[in-house]
């Protein structure tokens, strides 16, 4: 049914880049924030390689909680940034200060430009609803509720396990499976009965690590091979393609 194994009863959707066109918002905000730091921190005339919005985004920040993304990216440049405090102001060069800076850019963009959805993915989501499948969102983003609100998608989901829930419940972020497992538990289904829809390599890895029944990789940026290597059972450019499968 809907291109999924017959025993599946629940669909766990990532948000940014799967349902909504917000991966590009995060990508641009990370690029601006990180490059500003790298420019200021360049010393002895030695320039630091700028953030690559394709490979660095996919490898270090996509799908991961905000602070994990800051740590992983700077570690890739051999730089250890002090964690600081979660309440650090945005002008502080700590993991949390830098993360807050990036978040201000994301929130400004959402406020000013609104959020576009992927129409195909929403058509697929509605088809899963009509087929009687359970539906939930599992996203690292602490802006998930706001994005669902401005796109009018909130009521299509029974559960939301986002960056806020993960913080409250001490759940490890993707690529660890914790947030997906917590969501399956909330829905009262076993991981084997649930499908994970993910565009991030870290998210596909989380679905695999949680032993979910089926993992759909969503490739909108030409990284199908990486999604397959991370363990996707199938890779599509948009979930709507699954409607054409038996
Ligand atoms: O900073 P937020 O909104 O809590 O989002 C955390 C992460 O959420 C993920 O969904 C995105 O793929 C990342 O790019 C983003 O950094």
From TrEMBL:
Q: Which Pfam families match?
A: Hydrolase
Q: What is this protein called?
A: Beta-phosphoglucomutase
Say which species the protein is native to: Rugosimonospora africana
Q: Does Phosphoprotein show up as a keyword for this record?
A: yes
Q: Which NCBIfam families match?
A: HAD-SF-IA-v3, PGMB-YQAB-SF
Gene Ontology MF terms in the entry? beta-phosphoglucomutase activity; hydrolase activity; metal ion binding
Name the SUPFAM superfamilies on file. HAD-like
Taxonomic lineage of the native organism: Bacteria, Bacillati, Actinomycetota, Actinomycetes, Micromonosporales
Family to which this protein belongs = Belongs to the HAD-like hydrolase superfamily. CbbY/CbbZ/Gph/YieH family.
Listed under catalytic activity are: beta-D-glucose 1-phosphate = beta-D-glucose 6-phosphate
Q: Under which EC number(s) is this enzyme classified?
A: 5.4.2.6
- Keywords in alphabetical order, please: Carbohydrate metabolism, Hydrolase, Isomerase, Magnesium, Metal-binding, Phosphoprotein
> Which InterPro entries does the annotation name?
B-phosphoglucomutase_hydrolase (IPR010976), Beta-PGM-like (IPR051600), HAD-like_sf (IPR036412), HAD-SF_hydro_IA (IPR006439), HAD_sf (IPR023214), PGP-like_dom2 (IPR023198)
Which cofactor(s) are needed, names only? Mg(2+)
């Amino acid at each position: 049914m809907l291109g999924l194994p017959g025993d599946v009863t629940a669909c766990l959707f990532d948000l940014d880049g799967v349902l909504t066109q917000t991966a590009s918002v995060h990508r641009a905000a990370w690029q601006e924030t990180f490059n500003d730091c790298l420019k200021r921190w360049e010393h002895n005339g030695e320039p630091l390689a700028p953030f690559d919005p394709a490979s660095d985004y996919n490898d270090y920040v996509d799908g991961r909680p905000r602070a994990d993304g800051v740590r992983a990216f700077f570690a890739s440049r051999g730089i250890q940034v002090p964690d600081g405090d979660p309440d650090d102001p945005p002008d502080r060069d700590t993991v949390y200060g830098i993360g807050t800076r990036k978040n201000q850019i994301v929130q400004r963009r959402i406020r000013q430009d609104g959020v576009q959805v992927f129409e195909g993915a929403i058509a697929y989501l509605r088809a899963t609803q009509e087929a009687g499948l359970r539906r939930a969102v599992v996203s690292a983003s602490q802006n998930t509720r706001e994005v669902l609100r401005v796109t009018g998608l909130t009521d299509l989901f029974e559960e939301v396990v986002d960056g806020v829930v993960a913080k409250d419940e001490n759940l490890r972020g993707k690529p660890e499976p914790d947030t997906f497992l917590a969501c399956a538990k909330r829905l009262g289904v076993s991981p084997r009965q649930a499908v994970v829809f993910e565009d991030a390599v870290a998210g596909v890895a989380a679905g695999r690590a949680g032993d979910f029944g089926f993992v759909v990789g969503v490739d909108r940026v030409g990284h199908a091979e990486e999604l397959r290597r991370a363990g996707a059972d199938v890779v599509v450019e948009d979930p709507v393609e699954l409607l054409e499968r038996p």
